[in-house]
Amino acid sequence: MKKQLILMVTALSLLTACGRNPKTTAEAEKIDYTVEQFADLQILRYSVPGFENLSLKQKELVYYLTEAALQGRDILFDQNGKYNLTIRRMLEAVYTGYKGDKNTPDFKAMEVYLKRVWFSNGIHHHYGSEKFVPGFSPEFFKQAVLSVDASAMPLAEGQTIEQLCDEVFPVIFDPKVMPKRVNQAAGEDLVLTSACNYYDGVTQQEAEDYYNALKNPKDETPVSYGLNSRLVKVDGKVQEKVWKVGGLYSPAIEKIVYWLKKAEGVAETPEQKAVIAKLVEFYESGDLKTFDDYAILWVKDLNSRVDFVNGFTESYGDPLGMKASWESLVNFKDMEATRRTELISNNAQWFEDHSPADKQFKKEEVKGVSAKVITAAILAGDLYPATAIGINLPNANWIRNHHGSKSVTIGNITDAYNKAAHGNGFNEEFVYSDAELQLIDKYGDLTGNLHTDLHECLGHGSGKLLPGVDPDALKAYGSTIEEARADLFGLYYVADPKLVELGLTPNEEAYKAEYYAFLMNGLMTQLVRIEPGNNVEEAHMRNRQLIARWVFEKGAADKVVELVKKNGKTYVVVNDYDKLRKLFGELLAEIQRIKSTGDLEGARNLVEVYAVKVDPTLHAEVLERYKKLNLAPYKGFVNPKYEAVTDADGKITDIQVTYDEDYVDQMLRYSKDYSTLPSINN
User: Phi/psi of residue 534, each to 5°?
Assistant: First the structure.
């Protein structure tokens, strides 16, 4: 899945949390969108408008798919780090069972640490990948662990509490042990220096050699090698341990399959029924060709209103960009809002033909582009609590070329972000003048949504690889280059008169709101997400800085974009929007060339020169200004809660959705009801 993450780094001041009276679907519009704020995180909630209007069969389908989604939570924790499940269970046991004073600084710090572990599905930051620094002491935690009933602790067979602490404490407290979940530093062994649990006992070179030996350059329909496995070395031999029923993660996958089979029984259409059956077959076999067959069936199922993603999907968490984290999204189509994205997708060939990319890198015929606005019903795995606002699938280039892709914008998530962000003072602090503020206030939401639509609906599906080019040729730089390509496609076309002609933008000035917001973010404000002294690591952040820094440098002679001082503060100023669009077009053409030809050196040069390094002086200024706003740079969500209403015979008569669960209650419930994997999975 290619994800479009929320562009804004604005956050909210903390509002009153929702009361304890259950809020039903009919009351969804009355909910508070803010739940709580801690560390650098703010927790929001989203409503599910339109759920009450679904048929009973559709509601039942959503319910079963939601249960399947929640069953995969432990998988992601384990993928993110070998000890994550052990540490989470230790923390939860202390949090719920500790009989000492829960108002001490140590306990309060442990509580924040646990909340961060829940949010990031592990002990490393969900975005920056650096390991959390505990605000509590090892002495306190050991005393707390020893005070709790040992039966609540994740002890291995024959293991004592002392031995558990000796094993796990260095992982928690020693900054030199597993310091980064995903390391992208050039020149280092990215596998050995990454704490993610996709490899065990192998080096980067061994991993690359293993998969290169499997690939056939003449295969025009290659499987996604390594997508659903851990690569290990056993008795000196490199081999895969596949995630499937009977393999790694089997207890969780068996639960997922159980609920998928229930969903299959209430599928809306024969096509959707076939999709679910094929996904079940993949989970049971682990066969990647079956996964491709499933993806083709899924992309062709356009008539079902309820849809879902469930499985090993994104490779951002693998330093080599091959192995996929587990995630799920259950949703249904927003019929009214989809008219916008359908208008874009219906003109896909026009956009492809008029791209500034070289003709040899364009598709002669754009196939199967479908786009819709969806309402998320549940977020899970690598889409929870932090989530994308746009999605484009499948990822396999040959499937996209031959069968098309599905693109979605998640309307209710975007709406929740927007409702929560208005009036928080962020733009007033960082936007240069009233002229730009008025542009953003008037057109920002509209053009931001359009940029996402263009990014997802067309950007990821545009262009083509030349014959014989390995889809993984760009290696660790592939994700950044791909996100930059899609973002540039959206930026180039959001300013095109074609959008005015289609009625998507009201005039030829509106796009400037998105241009300004994007550059302000890429040049300055996304730096609030980075700790002092660190480089930019995450692919989406690298993409935005790459674009912004490149156009800043290339347009410097004409002062297209400037960083200026006003009252001692730095601001972005755009002096020539027309030239800026031309620069976006030039960079899009170059990045499409890099993608199409598999130019690893070209990708490396762009990323290392423009996307990685941070200006420490500007960074310090941005952090200081942001701190005064008392905002959180990262946001995530609590899910609604679905409950089946049954009659005396046990037959489902309705599905009720409520919005009253708070963050801690939801996380503890998920750990109790949806936790099936061992603490250590080998």
Answer: -90, 155
Distance CA 403, CA 399 (A): 5
The rounded distance, in Å, linking the Cα atoms of 649 and 629 is: 56
- Cβ-count burial of 212 within 10 angstroms (0-12 exposed, 13-18 middle, 19+ buried)? exposed
Strand partners, 564: 571
Residues 6 or more apart from 457 whose CB is under 8 A from it? 341, 344, 345, 348, 369, 371, 392, 407
pLDDT in tens, 607-650: 999 999 999 999 999 999 999 999 999 999 999 999 999 999 99
State which amino acid sits at residue 465.
Answer: L
Q: Name the one residue in this structure whose structure tokens are 């024959």.
A: 158
Q: Any long-range contacts for 34-38 (C-beta under 8 Å, 24+ apart)?
A: 34/420, 35/638, 35/662, 35/663, 36/662, 36/663, 37/11, 37/12, 37/632, 38/112, 38/115, 38/116
CA 558: distance to chain centroid? 37
Task: Name which of 107-121, 178-192, 193-207, 411-425 the model is least confident about.
Answer: 411-425
Calculate the dihedral angle through the C-alpha atoms of 581, 585, 587, 588, rounding to the nearest 10 degrees: 130
- Span 448-494, pLDDT tens digits: 999 999 999 999 999 999 999 999 999 999 999 999 999 999 999 99
- Whole-angstrom Cα Rg for the chain: 24
Q: Which two tokens stand for residue 607?
A: 């990323």
Which of 410, 394, 426 is closest to 12 using CA atoms? 426
DSSP 156: P
- The full DSSP string for 17-42 is PP-SS--BGGGGGGS-SEEEEETTEE
What are the Cα distances from residue 656, in Å, to 45, 62, 674? 17, 11, 20
Average the pLDDT over 33-51 and give the result.
Answer: 96
